[in-house]
Amino acid sequence: MAEFWGPLAALAGEWEGEGGLDTAYSHSQHKVLGTPFREKCTLKSFGPVANGSQELYGLDYKSAMWRNDEENPFHTEVGYWLYDAATGEIMRGFVVPRGITTLAGGTAAADATEFTLHAAKGEANYTIGENLYLAKEASTLSYDATITIGDDTWSYDETTMLKMAEFAEPFSHTDRNTLHRVG
Ligand code: HEM
């Protein structure tokens, strides 16, 4: 699989993680909060997808994060991971159901165990779209993630810079977790 999916081959499957940590501004508590969370994530392989001479292999994914034993997740994502083995281009395109779409990208060797992804508002290729309310009140300026792959485990550490109405300076909204294979 690594020949076509590169580092994404190790991510296919079902995953859970108990030790997530989110830092965000809470509108209900009017302060910045560090929130522990648990997470489930499913990634399914597909490919190839042909764009002319480009061949992409990928994973479609769904992830959800919960606080404690709450019934409804407080954050979810659906999206695609994509890899171009000819160039090493690696991408994660996803939607956060606040009305945000992100296509983040980077490069990674097929056997990489760590790689980074970047997107920023207004950039030509790896960029962020958001709804009209968020553009005024909490605009996503950039998204940066580091992915680290272990043995039946993988971790992410991501920073989403937000221009929030509540703060004069951009606010660093961060999330990290380590996921363990359950299927
Ligand atoms: C594990 C990943 C994530 C978790 C657990 C998470 C969780 C949260 C939480 C708890 C809030 C505060 C909501 C409130 O009380 O008002 C928030 C705000 C926000 N998040 Fe995330 N988030 C994650 C990732 C992301 C990503 C990747 C993006 C964008 C690409 C994003 C964009 C935003 C925005 C724009 C807001 C501000 C909404 C507002 O102030 O109205 N988040 N997030």
Structure characterization notes:
Strand 1 and strand 2 (31-51) form a beta hairpin. The chain has 183 residues and is mainly beta. Helices cover 5% and strands 65% of the residues. The longest helix has 6 residues, at 132-137. Strands 7-9-10-11-1-2-3-4-5-6-8 form an eleven-stranded antiparallel β-sheet. The chain has a single domain, classed as Beta Barrel (Lipocalin), CATH 2.40.128.
Q: Which tags fit this structure?
A:
single chain, 183 residues, mainly beta, Lipocalin, eleven-stranded antiparallel beta sheet, 5% helix, binds protoporphyrin IX containing FE
Compact description:
It is built from 2 helices and 11 strands. It has 183 residues and is mainly beta. The chain has a single domain (2-181), classed as Lipocalin.
- Kindly state the mean pLDDT as a whole number? 97
| Spans of at least 5 consecutive residues with low confidence | none
Terminal-residue CA separation: 17 Å
Q: What is the chain-wise order of helices and strands?
A: HEEEEEEEEHEEE
Largest beta-sheet characterization: 11 strands, antiparallel
The best one-word shape is globular
In the CATH scheme, the class would be: Mainly Beta
Bound compounds: protoporphyrin IX containing FE
Using only C-alpha atoms, the radius of gyration works out to: 17 Å
Structural domains: how many: 1
Question: Looking across the biggest beta sheet, what order are the strands in?
Answer: 7-9-10-11-1-2-3-4-5-6-8
Strand content: over 45%
* Helical run tally: 2
CATH topology: Lipocalin
E-strand count: 11
Percent helix: under 10%
